[in-house]
Amino acid sequence: MFAKDKLTYTTIPLPDRADMSDVQMQAESTSFLDRMRTRHSVRDYVDRPVPREIIETCLRTAGSAPSGANHQPWHFVAISNPAIKQRIREEAEEEERKFYAGGGGDEWIRALEPIGTTADKPHLTIAPWLIVVFAQRWGEFDDGTRYKNYYVPESVNIATGFLLTALHLSGLCTLTHTPNPMKFLNAALGRPASEKPTMIIAAGHPAPDAVVPSVAKIKKPLEEISTFL
Fold first, then answer.
1. Cα dist. 8→5, 92, 132, 140, 142 in Å?
2. What is the pLDDT of residue 1?
3. Which pTM does this prediction carry?
4. Under a CB-based contact definition with an 8 Å cutoff, are residues 188 and 87 in contact?
5. Which one of 62, 93, 135, 150 is least enclosed by Cβ atoms within 10 Å?
6. Would you call 170 helix, strand, or coil by DSSP?
7. Where do the Nitroreductase domain residues begin and end (predicted)?
8. Which pLDDT score is estimated for 3?
9. How far apart are the C-alpha atoms of 100 and 93, rounded to whole Å?
10. What is the reported pLDDT for 144?
């Protein structure tokens, strides 16, 4: 953590160490791949409650992510309050209507056609939890003095990936939602100007008739997404 008082560099022995054979490592990596291939972006939810303790545990997982200078420049607002979710939906849909009315540009809107999205976002009120991810552009000490955070987008993106994975492995479905602009979230959730909202994550259980766009199952092959030298 970052502190106003000078901190000195000290070390401790590596607290956790995996000691696996190559065969065990391959088995573990394959098992994880198989589980992550069952993750889908879901837009159809039921209002079945999800215990707060599960969300808390997933957020602890997100908080364990690496970050620039270990500043951990993120804040997660977990929302189950129906009135707050309704406000977020109304304001998000207002921005989405502007987007689909032409604000997003023809190319972007055409790119979304195979996904089947519209300005209507019922998942924002039906899903039992919304988690809004904020990136902390700077921090403040108790006396109001600012300090700089480093590699903020990269750090927050990694933590968000941890969170999505934790939610999935806990048996929940998720949907990432990024209305543009998102400044209304600061006012709706009482977050300071130092924080920039980056994403709304809906989390919950899928509806019995939930569907996903078929195009979402088309993934680029390994040779297109990687190079070995």
1. 10, 45, 34, 21, 21
2. 57
3. 0.95
4. yes
5. 150
6. coil
7. 37-205
8. 67
9. 10
10. 83
**pLDDT at 215 (0 to 100):** 94
Asked whether the beta carbons of 9 and 70 are under 8 A apart, the reply is no
Segments in the chain below pLDDT 70: 1-3
Q: Give strand pairing partners of 46.
A: 205
The rounded distance, in Å, linking the Cα atoms of 143 and 120 is 44
68 token code pair:
């620039």
Alpha-carbon gap, residue 53 to 199, rounded angstroms: 22
Question: What are the tens digits of pLDDT across the range 180-213?
Answer: 899 999 999 999 999 999 999 999 999 999 999 9
What is the H or E stretch that residue 138 is in? strand 138-140
Contacts of 1 (CB under 8 A, 6+ apart): 70, 71, 72
The whole-number pLDDT of residue 204 equals 98
Residue with structure tokens 């607290």? 15
Using an 8 Å Cβ cutoff, are 202 and 188 in contact?
no
The Cα–Cα gap between 221 and 218 comes to 9
Neighbours of 130 (CB within 10 A): 26
Distance between CA 142 and CA 146 in Å, rounded? 10
For 92, the enclosing helix (H) or strand (E) is helix 82-98
3-state secondary structure of 137: coil
Partnered with residue 205 across adjacent β-strands are 46
